[in-house]
Write a structure and sequence with these properties.
- The chain is α/β, with parallel strands linked by helices.
- It has 2 domains: 62 residues, no CATH class; 158 residues, Rossmann fold (3-Layer(aba) Sandwich).
- 52% of the residues lie in helices and 10% in strands.
- It contains 12 helices and 5 strands.
- Strand 3, helix 9 and strand 4 form a beta-alpha-beta unit.
- Helix 3 packs antiparallel against helix 6.
- The longest helix is centred in the first third of the chain and has 28 residues.
- The chain is elongated and about 75 Å long.
- It starts with a helix and ends in a 19-residue tail after the last helix.
- 27% of the residues are buried.
């Protein structure tokens, strides 16, 4: 095939915003010649490379927009470490039916048991499935909602969050609270109910949420809404990755930290 014609095709593809097809054209032509491909096979492969590249960029955008603290997946989760975890149940939930059904998912366990890892893994899997996801720590989310009261944009922010497919609220526990926080959280949960799947992680019991967030009566209303059709992962009792995991500090016989483990 004429090099001039090939370059013309590349220019036309880039004009049509099909740059990945243009970039793949030379190697695709070589493969087609080597394998003596038919026209449809050749065309299908070139189109497939454009589609794969576009899907990859779209996934990257969704993950970046979700603002996870770290990229943690089910593939990197140690399924054998946590004896209190119902592995089969978690893997069933990883099929994301709870998102399609707009159900809440509550993940309970003491500090270090892998709650944030699981919540993030669900979020990454949801991004891979094409869902819109956002990750917040509870303190940061409430700070944002409280700050929005100054310019009267609270309803706009809650409406934006209600357009998500999955909202992850991490570290529901004792926070630096303000009197407005419980009502703001209730407003958010009420708007999201039956519209958005919400994942919450907590290292305290539901009975303690009222004291932690600041208003037991309002917090009870929040819990009532979350428990309706909710899924629950309970890692109590559970082992802590921070104190018992493979990277936890090791103690010598004298109960001092092993110097070889110090950074």
């Amino acid at each position: 095939m004429s090099k001039i014609l090939i370059e013309k095709i590349k220019q036309d593809l880039r004009f049509l915003r099909l740059s990945d097809m243009a970039d793949a054209l030379d190697s695709a032509l070589l493969e087609a010649e080597k394998e003596r491909q038919g026209y449809l096979t050749f065309f299908a492969r070139v189109v497939s490379r454009q589609v794969e590249a576009r899907k990859s960029r779209s996934l990257e955008r969704r993950i970046n927009k979700a603002a996870f603290k770290r990229h943690m997946t089910f593939e990197s989760f140690d399924w054998n470490f946590q004896p209190a975890l119902n592995v089969e149940y978690v893997k069933d939930l990883a099929q994301l039916g709870f998102i399609a059904n707009r159900q809440p998912l509550l993940i309970l366990g003491k500090t270090g048991t892998g709650k944030t890892h699981l919540a993030t893994a669900f979020g990454v899997r949801a991004c891979e499935a094409g869902y819109k996801v956002q990750f917040y720590e509870l303190q940061s989310l409430l700070n944002k909602l409280f700050a929005s009261m100054a310019d009267d944009t609270t309803d706009d922010i809650i409406a934006e969050l209600a357009r998500l497919d999955l909202l992850i609220i991490d570290q529901v526990g004792y926070i630096r609270s303000k009197p407005e926080y419980p009502s703001l959280l209730l407003d958010l949960v009420s708007v999201c109910q039956h519209r958005v799947s919400v994942i919450l992680t907590s290292n305290i019991s539901f009975q303690q949420w009222g004291d932690a967030i600041g208003n037991p009566s309002i917090t009870n209303a929040i819990v009532d809404r979350l428990f309706e059709h909710a899924c629950l992962i309970n890692i109590n009792p559970g082992r802590s990755y921070r104190t018992e995991g493979p990277h936890a500090p090791k103690l010598t016989e004298n109960n001092t930290t092993d110097p070889s483990r110090e950074s």
